[in-house]
Write a structure and sequence with these properties.
By secondary structure, the protein is α/β, with parallel strands linked by helices. It is 33% helix and 39% strand. Helix 1 runs parallel beside helix 2.
């Protein structure tokens, strides 16, 4: 038996000009007891060809997968600008960082924009420590 098991579930609610997606996962601790992982919520606001993703919660493995799906949905919708608001994100793992960098680079190569806005102190520390803050965070 694995020490940690995870599964994700996505729920979406359509509203005028916005959608909301929630992903959650469960993990098994060392004693085999299930515990609920923190939920990530990603709300999308669309204004023309500009998409804003408002992320709340942990951008861990499951959260990074959900973030990637939402970024890909914005790209498929022909977004020229994608802003990822991380003011309510409590954690950013390496998988989340990979997603941000991969699609920042892809958008830049296609003469489009993907930027992080208003990173929380926890996320700001990760971006600064890894040296990617200058590239992916919107300059105010």
């Amino acid at each position: 038996m694995d020490f940690q098991q995870s599964c994700s579930a996505a729920h979406s609610a359509q509203r005028i000009g916005r959608k909301s997606r929630v992903a959650d996962g469960s993990a098994t601790d060392f004693n085999g007891a299930n515990k609920l992982a923190e939920i990530i919520e990603i709300r999308t606001n669309v204004n023309g060809d500009t998409h804003e993703l408002l992320v709340a919660g942990r951008v861990d493995g499951n959260g990074a997968n959900q973030l990637e799906l939402d970024i890909l949905a914005a790209i498929r919708a022909n977004a020229q600008s994608i802003y990822i608001n991380l003011s309510q994100a409590t954690f950013l793992c390496s998988a989340g960082l990979r997603v941000l960098l991969q699609y920042w680079r892809q958008m830049k190569n296609n003469k489009r924009v993907l930027l992080v806005t208003r990173p929380s102190p926890e996320v700001d520390d990760v971006l600064a420590t890894t040296g990617f803050k200058e590239q992916v965070v919107e300059k105010v």
